[in-house]
Specification:
Length: 331
């Protein structure tokens, strides 16, 4: 386990290369840091809806009658808790819905496979149950895979997309360096991956703190860890890394991501990208490629950051979305 942790840290340091760029079509912004407190509190009322026979947990803040609804989708192994400091920046502009994905956070943990397709089906059902229209997605990690796919299929229901550390394209094993290949092959190994994430709770105990560019407090760690205290509750966290489309496998993931990968650059939907250096998914080279090829995109450089940018720059992200919203929709 210590070897894997060391390799992750080394992999991240090796990825910190490349420069971001821009073009005349898109706008790039810098967000200055501030000393606004990052709160561990989660002062939101829990709500539940039953979809596909299971309860999904979500928060519902802001004005339910507003024109736009921000839908905030988290990734692995987090929950809607990761958005707690972003939400107050968005409520002046619209309704804010932030669910826990099925099998994660306070949502039920039914006996299902927890494939990418399963998460899509449950999230689709929740959005339909809440009858959400004029959606502005705010998405990260696997939440981006769900949100991008939804926007591709239902563009008439989506008004805009904000993304950070997002799954924007399929990848091949050749895209990864030796260390990355070692780590992700281990995640996908039926026995080693099971031991890491079901037995040892690696993503919650090690990966999340390591991929956050500040020290999480005891209260924050406890909140993130609470849904996964028992081994049998960690299945979704274990399965997610096996769903990453690498060199065409798994095919179901590859086909979904490949389809929206072709659609996103030419889509006219307003888009806002946050990126940081070195990042983990959207590294500087990837951010540069996106800025040079995607239509109707603005981008914000947060500075130094890893993967869970909401835990390092929540107020900068919230202000950035607020300002982008006012420029884009309130003018």
């Amino acid at each position: 386990m210590k070897k894997v942790i060391f390799l992750f840290a080394l992999c991240l340091s090796l990825s910190a290369t490349g420069q971001t760029g821009t073009n005349a079509q898109n706008q790039t912004h810098m967000i200055s840091t501030n000393r606004t407190k990052i709160s561990a509190a989660f002062p939101y009322e829990s709500k539940y809806r039953t979809v596909k026979g299971s309860k999904m947990h979500y928060i519902d803040e802001g004005d339910a009658a507003a024109k736009h609804t921000f839908v905030l989708l988290h990734g692995n192994p987090t929950s809607n808790y990761i958005w707690r400091n972003v939400v107050p920046h968005l409520t002046p502009h619209g309704r804010v819905i932030a669910p826990d994905l099925i099998g994660m956070g306070k949502s039920d943990k039914p006996d299902i496979d927890y494939t990418y397709a399963d998460h899509i089906a449950y999230t689709d059902a929740l959005i339909a149950e809440l009858n959400l229209q004029n959606v502005i997605f705010v998405i990260q990690d696997w939440g981006s895979g769900i949100g991008f796919h939804y926007a591709h299929r239902f563009p008439e229901k989506v008004s805009g997309i904000v993304f950070l550390e997002a799954i924007v394209r399929t990848i091949d094993w050749s895209d990864a360096n030796l260390i990355e290949r070692f780590i992700f092959k281990r995640f996908r190994h039926p026995k080693k991956g099971y031991k890491m994430n079901m037995k040892n709770n690696f993503f919650v105990k090690r990966f999340l703190p390591m991929m956050t560019r500040r020290r999480l407090t005891k209260e924050e760690k406890a909140y993130y860890g609470a849904p996964y205290l028992r081994e049998e509750d960690r299945k979704a966290v274990w399965i997610w890394p096996t769903q990453i489309a690498i060199s065409g496998t798994p095919k179901a993931s590859h086909d979904i991501i490949k389809a929206y990968e072709k659609w996103l650059p030419q889509s006219k939907l307003p888009k806002l990208m946050f990126h940081a250096k070195p990042g983990m998914i959207i590294k500087p080279k990837e951010a540069k490629r996106i800025k040079e090829t995607w239509n109707n995109l603005e981008s914000i450089d947060l500075g130094k950051g890893k993967h869970y940018l909401q835990e390092t720059y929540p107020h900068q992200i919230g202000r950035g979305i607020s300002e982008w919203y006012l420029r884009t929709f309130a003018g």
